[in-house]
Design brief:
mainly alpha
Length: 416
């Protein structure tokens, strides 16, 4: 029964994730065609990020109060019907930038609620011994969607336009909701009183206390927040800039390099779930936390003018870039999957949603600042020195982070 539940949940998440990735490449192109403004595109993307961050505290508290199965079903169906509405408006040439921003904010709020609830219900339906493998499979599904979705979206948008993209994504969410209806899940109400403002802050503080009670977890999250701030902008901002301005790559080549990173994460997720499933999580983490910044340092040296003067073939540079980004993606999964699995296991069920939301807030709160800093530095510094400096800082902080991962706390089992 549990295997069936896992299959239904992962299948639903996989279908909707693929639809979202198909749409991810089309929306920016549509906004640019509609307005001719990169600023308008930024506004749409920023509205999504800000709402997600604002919703995370609420999503954690709400997730611990409601039936998680019903929640993910309703949220997926609601998301699908909103997209159907957008598809209709696009078909009638009535989809404006204002409507797109408003619906993006609504969809972002729905997404925040869904993410917290789906993360929490996963632990409810998976045995602890199978949790790491399930997380690896889930990450692999996300990687496949990230690998295939933008390519499919580019083809569909170029051939058929935004209406078909929105319709396909709408159907993906509706199919996901239908799949999740068949999950066998026993709901245990953990909170019977009505949620008030006072109760919200009280319960949110309980989530904060739960994080603090796991020795070393909050410090680890602060390290993660800093590393996300300096590393997260590399693929969406640094790579396109350097690819175009320094390496002379085409848009297709830059897309291939991005896919190589995703493909690396996909392969490592499968390897962790199968061949390395019995390897200690600490060993996997220590491998990934060191090798990922080392590969990044190698790439930084590769884009130095002295190196490029020696390697005159664009094809050779492209091959090196593909290999290095594949290895970066491969290494990153060795960091994320083992730690996330350990955290899932030790968090008590009654505060799980709140803890997940707090972790997401802390680890991602500085990412918008990172995007702004990269934009400024790329316009005012030399890219290869910027990446080398960032990579060295990442390596040093990674070495420090190894000392602050609370592995002993992670071994504490939940009380039944």
């Amino acid at each position: 029964m549990k295997n069936k539940n896992i299959t239904l949940l992962l299948a639903g998440m996989g279908v909707s994730e693929l639809g979202s990735q198909i749409q991810s490449i089309a929306i920016p192109l549509f906004v640019l065609r509609l307005t001719g403004s990169a600023t308008s595109m930024s506004i749409v993307l920023l509205s999504s990020v800000v709402v997600s961050l604002l919703m995370m505290p609420f999503s954690g508290v709400i997730s611990d109060r409601w039936n998680r199965k019903k929640a993910i079903v309703i949220l997926d169906l609601l998301h699908g019907f909103i997209l159907l509405g957008l598809a209709y408006l696009a078909h009638k040439d009535m989809l404006t930038i204002e409507l797109l921003v408003i619906t993006t904010m609504i969809r972002s709020a729905i997404g925040a609620l869904f993410q917290t609830s789906s993360n929490a219900i996963l632990v409810d339906i998976v045995d602890q011994k199978n949790l790491r493998s399930t997380n690896s499979i889930a990450r692999s599904i996300t990687s496949v969607s990230s690998l295939a979705g933008p390519a499919i979206g580019g083809v569909l948008y170029g051939a058929l336009g935004i209406t078909i993209i929105l319709f396909v994504n709408a159907i993906s969410f509706i199919l996901s909701g239908i799949s999740e209806m068949f999950i066998q899940y026993k709901y245990n109400s953990l909170c019977s009183d009505k949620l008030s403002v006072k109760a919200f802050f009280t319960e949110f503080n309980e989530g904060i206390k739960a994080v603090k009670n796991i020795k070393g977890l909050f410090v680890m999250l602060l390290f993660a927040a800093f590393l996300n701030m300096i590393d997260a902008p590399i693929i969406p901002i640094f790579l396109p800039f350097v690819g175009k301005q320094v390496l002379g790559f085409s848009a297709t080549n830059i897309g291939l390099i991005t896919s190589a990173y995703t493909f690396g994460a996909l392969i490592s997720g499968l390897v962790i779930a199968t061949a390395l499933k019995k390897i200690d999580s600490k060993k996997l983490f220590n491998f990934g936390i060191i090798t990922a910044p080392l590969f990044q340092i190698v790439f930084a040296f590769m884009i130095f003018p002295q190196t490029l003067a020696l390697i005159t073939s664009t094809i050779v540079i492209l091959i090196f870039s593909l290999v290095l980004y594949f290895l970066m993606g491969f290494s990153d999964s060795f960091v994320n999957i083992p730690v996330y699995t350990k955290i899932q296991i030790i968090i008590p069920e009654e505060v799980r949603g709140r803890v997940f939301s707090i972790m997401s807030i802390v680890s991602s709160v500085f990412m918008p600042l990172g995007y702004m800093i990269y934009g400024f530095l790329l316009d005012n510094t030399v890219p290869h020195y910027l990446l080398l400096g960032v990579s060295i800082i990442t390596l040093l902080f990674s070495l420090l982070l190894k000392r602050f991962i609370p592995w002993n706390s992670f071994e504490i089992k939940k009380e039944k």
